[in-house]
Sequence to fold (330 residues):
Amino acid sequence: MLRRVMATDLASLRAVYELPFFELIQKGRETYCAHWPEHRVQLCKLLSIKTGGCSENCGYCAQSAHHETGVEAEKLMTPSQILPEARLAKEQGATRFCMGAAWKGIREEDPRFEMILQTVREVRALDLEVCVTLGQISEGAARKLKEAGLSAYNHNIDTSPEYYPNIVTTHTFADRMETIGNVQRAGISVCSGGIIGMGESEEDRLRMLEELGRLDPPPESVPINCLMAVEGTPLEGAEPVPVFQLVRLIATARIAFPKAKVRLSAGRTHLTPEGQALCFFAGANAIFFGDKLLTAENPSDDEDRALLAALDLKPLAPDPEAYAGAAGGA
Fold:
């Protein structure tokens, strides 16, 4: 019942989020155990396949051409450059390989789009789930990605619709939702979440979950990112979010999206092992591993394996057929 109400009702989300802390994380744990009884964590690898020079002015992003961050613009990587990275990720235990391109979006007629389609085909042939984040795309482009074997499309909504204009002005929240709609109509699963620590309120974070809950089907994975404040961006002086607020949000997301992967994403270098353990207890069951997330620091493979071993958590087994269609997190 919580799932049905919370998906569309901010008041119910707030009521759950504001439960006494231990009651909340226990409910998150119970929801997790009911739907993910094997207590495994999906290991995902994220690779920047086109770094820097993005035309958008997202206040959190080191890759925006509007900010002086020292990140140089690079060309799109070729399939032959990407495939060795995908093979290595699989050898290290990844079941999902994610590729991100720093640009506003891409059109079907752009020659680089065919390169991306070929890369998706070749990575999928490795029996890996394939996820891309390419910015704005049309429904036609999404259908071609689906035909190439794409498992999921990442398009974070970042924050609430109300707070969004404080973070970026070169596109709108409605633009984000339009792309998500195009992806879903093409039959591709959606990976969408947000970033906390950008100056937004706790209410904004719940509004973000409310908007995600209105998707049909709901997202199959919900990344929760903690802002990595980058020198040269408008948010370089932002204060880290208290860990208990992060844990509350993860528990609430787990209850709202019981079958989704709730991904503890960027910002884990700022968390203690104990803080991460609380996040896993509350319902997180996916991470990005490897020492870099696009351009941001991330814990090393050895650190992550030691943490998962200490918590008796094992990597999620490969499932090459996972999310071949628009599988939701209902």
Observations:
- The chain has eleven helices and twelve strands.
- The first strand starts at residue 40 and ends at 50.
